[in-house]
Amino acid sequence: MNYKVDYHVHSYFSDGTMKPTDLVKMYKGRDYDVVALTDHDGVDGVYEAVIAGEALEMKVIPGIEIGGSYDFGGQEIELHILGYHIDTENAALKACIEKLRASRRDRNERLLVHLQGLGYDLVYEDLIERPGQDYIGKPNFARALKRKGGAPDNVWELLDSVERERVSAYEAISVIQEAGGMAVLAHPLKTKEIGSLEEENFWNNLDAIVADLKKHSLKGMECYHPSADHDQALKLVVMAGKYHLHITEGSDFHGDE
Ligand SMILES: [Zn+2]
Ligand SMILES: [Zn+2]
User: Fold this and answer.
1) Please, what is the end-to-end C-alpha distance for the chain in angstroms?
2) Percentage of the chain modeled with pLDDT above 90
3) Which residue, of 111, 160, 251, 256, is most buried by count of CB atoms within 10 Å of its CB?
């Protein structure tokens, strides 16, 4: 039997555009067997997705995606860690999410002031896309700038110029584990800071990072993701095998835009 799975999906509780119930309905309609909701730095959509899954008889895995910092030979890089089968009521997880929420708010305030200082006509209300929205990420800034006709060509560079405080990748893995979950390295090929994908050096650097994270209880690697072509995905599968890591597949769906 061919099992259809998507272990990496975002809802409007982070920077996706769809309601969790609509996401589950959509995946059910496309004959998927399993979907994991993995919103950035939060689990607010999980309960709704699980209830929708029960109603539609579709397996929904409670998940999260945490952006963690990682010291790569003195250079700070960002790694995304996915967590699956987490207990969303776990105290350590809740505390970590609260910390991430506060640092995001702080970043958003500073980023808004920065943009206003550069002459962009943007106010806080422009970033809100639906009633009750709590999460505001860089895509909200990008969309708001676009709506107001002021998005520059280098919009992501501009938005990346104001950083926020992160938890470390180790901390992300350990908090996921504490919440009873399994930590997986997301889209390894998006780690642009460690080299160009065409060069062997990239793969050696990635291998070293994976070896280190494995020592810190990493349990899997997202080998199948839109960032990896067929041959690259197979290389990742071989690496996952070398470190006895689970192999996962995710689309990183954010909604049809
Ligand atoms: Zn990610
Ligand atoms: Zn993602």
Assistant:
1) 32
2) 90
3) 111
* Residue 171 is assigned to a structural domain of this protein: yes
Tell me 157's DSSP state.
H
Span from the CA of 254 to the centroid of ligand 1 (angstroms): 11
Residue 78 alpha carbon to ligand 1 centre in Å:
10
Q: How far is the CA of 113 from the centre of ligand 2 (A)?
A: 27
CA of 154 to the centre of ligand 1 (A): 20
Closest ligand to C-alpha of residue 187 is 1
Instruction: Assess if residue 255 is contained within a domain.
Output: no
Distances (CA, A) of 163 to 10, 158, 171, 231: 22, 11, 19, 34
Kindly state whether residue 257 falls inside one of the protein's structural domains: no
φ/ψ bin of 48: left (φ > 0), alpha (ψ from -120 to 50), beta (otherwise) = alpha
223: helix, strand or coil? strand
Is-above-0.85 flag for pTM? yes
pLDDT digits (tens, 9 = 90+) for 7-40: 999 999 998 999 999 999 999 999 999 999 999 9
| Residue 256 belongs to some domain of the structure | no
Q: Which ligand is nearest to the CA of 38?
A: 2
Residues in the chain: 257
Query: Which residue segment(s) compose the domain that 197 sits in?
Result: 5-249
Which CATH number fits the domain that encloses residue 27?
Answer: 3.20.20.140
Count of domains observed in the chain:
1
- pLDDT tens digits for range 95-131: 999 999 999 999 999 999 999 999 999 999 999 988 8
The rounded Å distance from CA 252 to ligand 2 centre is 5
